[in-house]
Amino acid sequence: MTARRRRRTPDTPTAPRAFRPTAVLFDRDGTLVHDVPYNGDPALVRPVPGAAEAVRLVREAGLPTGVVTNQSGIGRGLLSHEDVRRVNTRIDELIGPLDVWVYCPHLPEAGCPCRKPLPGLVVDAAVRLGLRPEDCAVIGDIRADVLAARAAGAEGILVPNTATLPEETEAEPGRAPDILTAVRRLMARPAARAVPAGGGPA
Q1: Active-site residue set
Q2: How many CB atoms lie within 10 A of CB 17?
Q3: DSSP secondary structure letter of residue 23
Q4: Cβ 157 vs Cβ 182: under 8 Å
Q5: C-alpha span between 51 and 117 (Å, rounded)
Q6: Alpha helices in the chain (DSSP H)
Q7: pTM for the full predicted model
Q8: How many whole angstroms from its chain centre is CA 11?
Q9: What are the two backbone dihedrals, phi and then psi, of residue 39, each rounded to the nearest 5 degrees?
């Protein structure tokens, strides 16, 4: 009798990949900048330690960067799209520029496919960069970020902070202690040849 292989799901932690990703996508609040709930004020933006250097290292390696972020404050009527864009612009000024920004404005109960932990934002960011989602890495501070990455076929790396639930941290053995360490680990891998979105070699 042949043994059945256990089906891998987004809940299943994966081993670190052998090669460097072709793009690095970051969560925004709690990962690149300190989390200010439903922040629409650029003056309140404060990068987390190491964020600017982490983005710089990715860019110096010649890889594109992006941000994938849930912004349900729009759906709750607490923020406008312009508020979110103004905050994003300020983050770009402080630690960027980052190549692509995508966000989900919907409420959790809306069930939209773009809200993390569903994969829509990761897929959208990869497509905008002209890459396959499975060749990207996503760094975030809660498990929804990691699950969204895995659901899209990308690599997810948890960088927990004081707001991360202990059970989320324990569920991710491949976590990194901070954003700069996460990026340094990725950049230390050998480079892999990028495959454009939509196909392999001609």
Answers
A1: 27, 29
A2: 15
A3: E
A4: yes
A5: 23
A6: 51-60, 81-95, 120-128, 143-152, 166-170, 179-187
A7: 0.89
A8: 16
A9: -75, 125
